[in-house]
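User: I'm new to structure prediction. If I give you an amino acid sequence, what do you actually give back? Let's try with this one:
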Amino acid sequence: MTSQVRGIQLARLLGQWHALPGRRRSPDYAALAAAVRGLLADGRLALGVRLPAERELAEALRISRTTVTAAYRELRDSGHLASRRGAGSWTMLPGTHRVASTGLWTPLDDRDMIDLGVAALAAPPQLVAAARSAAEDLPRYLGGAGYHPTGIIELREAVAHAYTERGLPTSPEQIMVTNGTQHALDLVLRLALSPGGAVLVESPTYPNALAALSARRARITTHGLATDGAGWDADLLLGSIRQTRPKLAYLIPEFQNPTGHLMETELRERLVGVAHAAGTDLVIDESFVDLPLDGAPLPPPVAVFDRHSRVISIGGMSKPYWGGLRIGWIRASAPQVQRLAAARVGVDMASPVLDQLVAVHLLAEAASIVTARRAQLVAQRDALVGALADRLPDWRVAVPRGGVTLWAELDGPISSALARAAEEVGVRLAPGPRFGLDGTLERFLRLPFTLPAADLVEAVGRLAAVRYDLDRAGRPQWREPTVIA
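Assistant: Good question. You get back a string of structure tokens that encode the predicted 3D arrangement of the chain. For your 485 residues, that looks like this:
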């Protein structure tokens, strides 16, 4: 069944649509159509959603029905709206768009972009040799069916050893291999969260985690993070768990995505105790744990303080190694791992054996690979911070101690407008509202430093020019939007 957005809901999403860039050169209907395209561009309005009737939207916006009719006609002409008499109008994308490998909807004739929408590194040089070694190891697995629901033993042993080295004794029976960290989260939600269950998340947080929670129809509450300092307000976070008693809390304590914050040891210990008292399970995303950039020792894993199987840790190869290697894992109690394996049958049977063998060889060289990654990221982070200070000095940036992203506070609530305009100059951005629930965070922008330094400096130069243009008379043309699907 097609979902529908009511007039008052769309009006709230549109916000101050008259104030969008280019407004002074555009009639009302064109500004309204552009605002709807903007909602599609940053993912706040989904594809296939039926829009309100023209009269209903006109009443909600307090404008004439003629204006809404003209706006809908323009959206149909640009390929962003389909209408059928008696059935209504629903959102779509022009036929010249496709889904790219990044998960973004992009024009088929899309030119070379500096893509700052994806926070992931290119593959390390050791990957090819690891793949060759994995292929040589493969024959010993070919005599069986190839299904290993919890993962091949070599990889589970390697992951368990890494946890033990971090001060968290772990056996292979406590590890389940998945097809990436997102798959790990999906499996945990299938096991631990009933549809409509309450979940606490940080704000801002990882957009794909919000998508997974929405797919489970979770009731999401948020804990706001500061833009600088410690990030988590301990009293507010723990108070939220005590008061709302959510079934799950999804947190990223190591170099939080997107802010880069690192949770202190004391809060980790208190968090586990409060979660146990409230009956809340903690899903701890450790995607960035291998990427501290300042040389300081990391706090112990959150699960170190767990005595009641309340903490489920998830991680993977995507951030320190390569996103194209779809290998992740779950660390939990052995009984929980067995239940996860049973739940997995409804999703897939097992992870690819060859990919797992590649991961084994990469983890064997973790010391050299990750050390090189950290040095690379430090240089790219510093280049990005320097370029922002030089070209966009009014933006506030707290330099993260690790991870791969900066969370920039802009000089105005322009994130979505900036992202749309940046497409025109060959820069793809993930605007702030993508990292929240309700269309807020327009003053913020996530900027990953995973590209070469020269590309980052060039991107900032283009953004500075676009930012200047937003304050001028306006931009008469709109580029076809890129929608994060």
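You can read the tokens as a compact description of the fold. Here is one thing that stands out. The mean pLDDT is 89.
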